[in-house]
Please model this.
Amino acid sequence: GGTTCRLTVVRVLFVAIVGLGILAAAVQCFLNSPQGAGARHAIRAAITTAAPSLRPPPAAAALHVKISVGAFDSLLAEQYSSQRDAWQALADGGSSVAFSRFRVFAEDLTAHLNSTQAWWVFSELDENQDFDLKQSEFFSRLASETGAASAATG
Model:
């Protein structure tokens, strides 16, 4: 029954593992022998040639995600006379915004934040991580980042 089936599976796995071990030892012996020197050099050359394409580019450079809350505040200052004006443009008179609205707002800035950058800034501003950026979180986080005691005034 079940015990016989399990024993058969265990035997097959054991034979497979032993077989792979023997094969690995044989390949290693071959590569270390004088006859395997050519294969060893070919493998090394293939790895060296392929290595640059296997290395992923630095994430910030490749995805253009280098952004900070301070940099976001600077972008706001370039386009709006105050953080309050920026919030008004973002929330259109509301007291909170969802990420979908924030993403569109961030894309419309003069620096055009991409979706990844917008998400990063949104998640940093959304202090309680409820996916709903409130006006108080917006001003509080910008003030703490920039060190401006009166960040919400303007």
In short: Confidence is low (pLDDT under 50) at residues 51-63, 148-154. The two ends are 80 Å apart (CA to CA). The helical segments are 2-32, 37-54, 59-63, 69-79, 83-91, 99-107, 115-125, 135-146.
